[in-house]
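Please predict the structure of the following assembly.
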Amino acid sequence: MTATLISPPAAEPEKAAASRGLVDKVFRARELTLLVALVALVVGTQLSNTRFLSEQGVKDLFLNASILVLLAVGQSVVVVTRNIDLSVGSVVGLSAFACGKFASGSSHGVFTVILIGVLVGVACGVLNGLLVSLGKVPSLVVTLGTLYIIQGIDYYWAQGEQINAATLPEGVLDLGTGSVLGIPYLPLIAAVVLVATGWYLRSYRTGRELYAIGSNPEAARLAGVRSGQRVFAAYVFSGAIAGLAGALWLSRFGTVVADAAAGWELQVVSAVVVGGVAITGGVGTVWGAALGALLLTTIASALVVLKVDSFWQKAINGALLLAAISIDRIVQVRVTRALRRRNARHG
Amino acid sequence: MTAVPTTPGGDPPATPVLALRDVEKSFGAVRALHGVSLELFAGEAHALAGENGAGKSTLIKTLAGVHRPDAGQVLLDGEPVTFGNPAVARDAGVAVIYQEPTLFPDLSVAENIFMGRQPRGALGRIDRKSMHRTTAELFRRLGVALDPEQPARGLSIADQQIVEIAKALSFEARVLIMDEPTAALTGSEVARLFTVVRTLLEQGAAVLFISHRLEEIFALCRRVTTLRDGRWIASELLEGLTEDDLVRRMVGRDLDSLYPKQDTEIGKTALRVDRLTREGVFRDVSFEVRRGEIVALAGLVGAGRSEVARAVFGVDRYDAGGVEVDGRAYKAASPTAAMAAGLALVPEDRRQQGLVMDLSIEHNMGLTRLQALSKAGLIDRRAEHGTARDWALRLQLKYSRLSDAVGVLSGGNQQKVVLAKWLATGPKVLIVDEPTRGIDVGTKSEVHRLLSGLAAEGLAILMISSDLPEVLGMADRVLVMHEGRITAELSRADATEETVMAAATGRSGASASSNGRDAAA
């Protein structure tokens, strides 16, 4: 071994620790900032209206957030690969209606109904995934197309019909209202999916490959990552989550019309971006995305409690989105510069 | 540190680790490789020589499993194999370091090295601790100071290449292929790279090395295979060959001289830079360039040379000092004013700063003269085409149609288009930044002949170059920068590799012949 010929340079660990600290700080900062904003918002609202944090208020908050959190988690998995899934709103609508059709007037168990929803979602995900990974068409265009196609199918099928809570089996409605140990089912399901996905993305090879694809697609190809398969799988996952969300939608609202969740895709993408998942891929966590979804939902609820015109809600969401991407850009430029300077000094 | 022999002695084992036999590869009508053979032996560095467009990149991608040959065989330990995709080649022990490092900027250095092969612990989870430990160990073996958990974003090119080499080490690559790894490195970084490569050679790796710098080929390699126009020309031992022999095989003809700067009549001052300062970047930079003169701006990468050029041309602002063309000052921080004053800048990075790759040759050439080429606000396409044709002829541009996208041209021809684009503006002063970086030997001497001819016509030329033979061969005067200051001004007679390098590294207190302007600082 000649390796011993080369003596390791001194004063190394210091530099290493410094640059790691900086980077860690930046990435943790997003989740921390969101958390602080969330707490400030909740405290502020509570001070002006004490009913905001009543037991029912908190329950409503989490119930409202669950579906958006779920969808944000699914969307994140797609976005880290430098793709996007705009069809999620339509998939939720179709899945909710399909589940409703299947369950109404029957005595099907809740698990069967959920399974139907997930299958509808998977089918949509497979369609998106095939078009994006095999067709090599930009995902923005593909999923914009499937958004309308899936919505069209939903409208055609429904023909103006609506699903009523009265006709649904009890088990399905229980899912939306019941709880275990005081925690409602919906947030519980969202939390389980969130934790599992976060764990998977961080700790498994295929999870890391999703980030690699988004960070540098060409390098991923040269590293032997099967990009097509991974992107396909990401779409199937996002579809499955949207399908699940559709079943939960049915159980929560009971009444479903064809355009349920229409337009939600933009809220989901907002939540993901506010949560720090870079739209250019490779960066971000599902934790951030979930916090983003929670923040957007809380803002909506707070505005209602504070009796602010709902018009403001959209303006605030928009401002938040612009602030989030501006911060991302500034942070990125700064970090790159700082790292360069550090490396230049050492080289 | 003991000296490592340049090439391990002894005869190579009979069977090459990796070989190509009579490989053919075409892209559409273009035949990229035609009957090419190559044999790589363990413990031996093998050079691949050839001009740009000779088929070197295609050959590498064939070895790496990116391309599949149309005919012929890839042999691993003498057995025919099929590398269906890069992962298969990698698993067979073939590592490739591409010209442009291919890293994931958002992921940590350790993840970059182990992507797809991360060590796994319980439940198939990635064992981060072990991954970081192994990475640190790899860096220790390479003798470099990098933090495994640092993201790849922001690493210098040299460090990015080290990460690529660590990746090759991590899967115990038996074959290491390096495509122009030294193009963007400074002298000391090249030395470090070579030390690492020699260590790998001693451990029995086979290396395929590509470089346009012939002296590096001779310093590192034992054998050389030469390609010309996609054809195999020769595979031979380097021992006994001269640089001229190698160049002759690459271009298929003799080159009169690599650096033909002709004597010219030096006229009056065209460009005067006076105590130009940009805080933290360069300080008190003063020099002049006269008509008919080529002045080289030498120095290490990062000495501030390109930054001075950008400030002179008005791309960047400066804090103090002044610039004059033909005795007249012009507005700072405005490229338009600089162009109007008679300046032209051919930037270092042609792909990003010099050309619009998807645009046609003629449109690219016309970009600097949209005003002059237009009639009543509309661009006169015929005039544009005519000017482009004239320049293409004058610069001996190799192209099929002027309406072809610039991106399809070879590097040397792209550089000619950039030159044409700026020469068409009829400048008094031409600033060229690294005019021949990444250009093959044949085109290189053409670019040199061209610059020399332009100087003879009375153009003042400021040439930034890291290529020392080019600086010494082309320049009437050499200015050397070190850490943002001019540390020496050498006449053609006084400029040698030693004097220039001494000033560039800041070692000398400005040598005898320099004006010593900034030596005291």
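Chain B has a mean pLDDT of 83. Chain B has 18 helices and 22 strands.
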